[in-house]
Write a structure and sequence with these properties.
Layout lengths: L6 H13 L5 E2 H13 L8 H6 L2 H4 L4 E5 L5 E5 L1 H8 L3 H11 L2 H72 L11
Antiparallel strand pairs: 1-3, 2-3
Helix pairs in contact: 1-2
């Protein structure tokens, strides 16, 4: 077994593997298949395949088409240029790809994606409604709190005014010679 496995070599083997999947392959399955192919000839270290291939469609946009159907369903497709160069494919590939895109499997994937998007929209709307209710509760709570504070402040003002009146009465009574226990403030 060879031990000289480079990222460029991994990418080259990956393009060869991708040619076998004209109808596309899930990215996770693709990584596993590339690793299996490489492990027959090389010592493959953990994550070396993923590290080399995660941006394959960015590195080789003329050869690899990446479609993200859902969060977990990312598929890679070989371009017609890759098929022609690596596999000698012709216009039949284009016809096969068109046939696949019109197939029930592809339509089911698209419908599934649409359903997920609808669920996301529903979830967003639901969360927006909840957020509105929470804001309304907070606003109502704040209004109640403000009213309570106003009542407390009002009571404090009344108590202060009453206390001032009691002090004035006490002064008047002291002025008349009435002091101490004789003043009943109850």
């Amino acid at each position: 077994m060879h031990t000289n496995l480079t990222p460029d070599l991994i990418r080259d083997k990956a393009l060869t593997v991708l040619v076998k999947h004209a109808n596309g392959i899930k990215q996770a399955d693709f990584f596993a298949e590339v690793e299996a192919v490489l492990s027959t000839e090389f010592v493959v270290h953990k994550h070396s395949v993923k590290n080399a291939l995660w941006d394959l469609s960015d590195r080789f946009p003329e050869y690899v088409v990446k479609k993200k159907f859902t969060y977990r369903d990312v598929r890679l497709f070989p371009s017609s240029k890759l098929l022609v160069e690596r596999n000698g494919a012709t216009e039949d590939y284009t016809k096969d790809l068109l046939k696949y895109m019109l197939s029930d499997e592809f339509k089911a994937i698209k419908l599934h994606m649409l359903a997920l998007k609808v669920k996301d929209i529903e979830r967003h709307l639901f969360l927006s409604e909840i957020e509105g209710l929470i804001n309304e509760i907070i606003y109502e709570g704040a209004n109640i709190h403000v009213r309570e504070l106003e009542e407390i402040v009002g009571l404090k003002v009344a108590i202060k005014a009453l206390s001032e009146q009691i002090n004035q009465v006490t002064k008047i009574l002291k002025g008349r010679g009435i002091e101490g226990d004789a003043i009943d403030t109850d």
